[in-house]
Automatic annotation (TrEMBL):
Keywords: Dioxygenase, Metal-binding, Oxidoreductase, Zinc. This is 4,5-DOPA dioxygenase extradiol. Pfam families: LigB. It comes from Chitinophaga parva. Its cofactor is Zn(2+).
């Protein structure tokens, strides 16, 4: 399979590949991580080298919110520079990974609980390309995005993720991209290179404990975890991608944490690999 057309032609008959493809939650942090080499991006590259090469990547990014659920369905998704105040070299970056209309159709079909609309307007936002570019810099693997329906509660997103399990069996890397602790209104610029408020470290440790003990229901009901959780998640879009990752966990799968660091006082880069 050497061309995009070949991939699209055979997507619906992708064979199951034995062991499940791992699933990730990536704390993506600043858009500058898309072009910098630092402790976080080196870990992204390391994780990619440790895993089997995926047949495609499906990203649930904090930066694509929609009414209803949508999936990118174009041959060549554009690189979206959905940020401001950064240097020109970041805006100049293009990540020309192919899409896959056939995989978009297949994904829409396997999600039975809700109609998934094929989207031809979005592309790859910085929650997707800044991470995937560091993992797969040659841009040859098809990359798609699945939107987050902002009208739905956390339990909806967790259950929707479970419908994607067939893709893991076909070698598709499913990745949630956000940040467990994400409160931009409280960022402390003097701590931007490392460090967290007490409440941020407290709730991040609690999140990690709940992930490692498999207590998904407490993570779904994060609004019941107290004041620290309210500060960590003033709006849910950066947290919900974690629920997509957890929804795909199977019994007995290994969990590992990486990039477990607070930055800017009120952000954490903590990331999760399952499988």
């Amino acid at each position: 399979m050497n061309t995009l057309n070949d991939f699209n032609r055979f997507t619906n008959s992708l064979p199951e590949q034995g062991p499940l493809m791992p699933v990730l939650f990536m704390g993506h942090g600043s858009p500058m991580n898309g072009i910098e080499t630092n402790e976080f991006t080196r870990e992204w590259a390391r994780i990619a080298k440790e895993m089997p090469t995926p047949s495609a990547v499906l990203v649930v990014s904090a930066h694509w919110l929609s009414r209803g659920t949508r999936i990118t369905a174009m041959d060549l998704p554009p690189t979206i520079h959905d940020f401001g105040g950064f240097p020109p070299e970041l805006f100049a970056v293009q990540y020309p990974a192919p899409g896959s209309p056939d995989l978009a159709k297949e994904t829409a079909k396997i999600i039975r609980s809700v109609h998934v609309e094929e989207d031809h307007d979005w592309g790859l936002d910085h929650g997707a390309w800044t991470v995937v570019r560091q993992m797969y810099p040659d841009a040859k693997i098809p990359v798609l995005q699945l939107s987050i329906d902002y009208t739905k509660p956390p339990q909806y997103h967790y259950e929707l993720a479970r419908e994607l399990m067939a893709l893991r069996r076909k070698g598709v890397l499913i990745m949630g991209s956000g940040n467990m602790v994400h409160n931009l209104r409280m960022v402390a610029w003097e701590m931007i290179n490392g460090g967290g408020y007490d409440w941020a470290l407290e709730i991040n440790d609690q999140f990690k404990h709940l992930i490692q003990t498999g207590d998904h229901q407490s993570l779904i009901r994060y609004d019941q975890l107290g004041r620290a959780a309210q500060l960590a998640i003033p709006t849910p879009e950066h947290y919900l991608p974690l629920l997509y990752t957890l929804g795909l966990q199977q019994s007995g799968e290994e969990i590992s944490l990486f990039n477990d660091k607070a930055v800017g006082g009120s952000l954490t880069m903590t990331s999760v690999k399952i499988g």
